[in-house]
Amino acid sequence: MSDGTESGVLTALQAALAAEHAAVYGYGVIGGRTGEQRQAEARSAYDAHRSRRDALVREVRDLGGQPVAASAAYALPFAVTDSATAVRLAAELEERVADVYSDLVRASSGQRRGAAAGALREAAVRAVRWSGESVAFPGLAERASAAATAPATGAAEAGVAGGSASASATP
Q: What is the pTM of this model?
């Protein structure tokens, strides 16, 4: 994906858009299960993801692409039955969003790279707020484990496919 071409950037933008679609859906679930003390935080994250999603739609169109559509529903990675599982889902969503933005940072340059780095940072900060835990390099921890198990020539692609698919298939 980091081939430096417009095609590579478009692919990374589409993956980020798919992740934002999933995050918007996921925060709809989270908002219905989060305790009152975290409702404002959930609403703020929901609004942030909607805003990013809308900006990504414009960017994809500006590059001549057809924005990937949101799914009608997404399979959740686990049952969200109470405030604790809603908080756990929020942290997981943010980690997955950070993953795809790390791909966009790698694939882009200039102002787009700066915006992607900002989105990665925002997702990482939200993940820490939800989970209470942080990682040294948000968006890269999962890539390291994927790279260790993937063939050397396809490590980056395996990490991208894993992050994008999981972010778009399940919030």
A: 0.79
Separation CA 166–CA 151 (nearest Å): 20
User: Could you give the C-alpha distances from 79 to 75, 84, 149, in angstroms and in order?
Assistant: 10, 11, 29
SS3 for 12-43, per residue? HHHHHHHHHHHHHHHHHHHHHHCCHHHHHHHH
Q: In this structure, what DSSP letter does residue 78 have?
A: S
Two tokens at 93? Answer: 């969503």
Residue 102: partners with Cβ closer than 8 Å, 6 or more residues away? 120, 138, 139, 140, 143
- Digitized pLDDT (tens) for each residue of the chain, 171 residues in all: 344 578 899 999 999 999 999 999 999 999 999 988 999 999 999 999 999 999 999 999 999 999 999 999 999 999 999 999 999 999 999 999 999 999 999 999 999 999 999 999 999 999 999 998 876 655 665 554 444 443 333 323 222 223 333 343 445
**45 C-beta neighbours (distance < 10 Å), count:** 26
| Cα four-point dihedral sign 167, 99, 96, 68 | negative
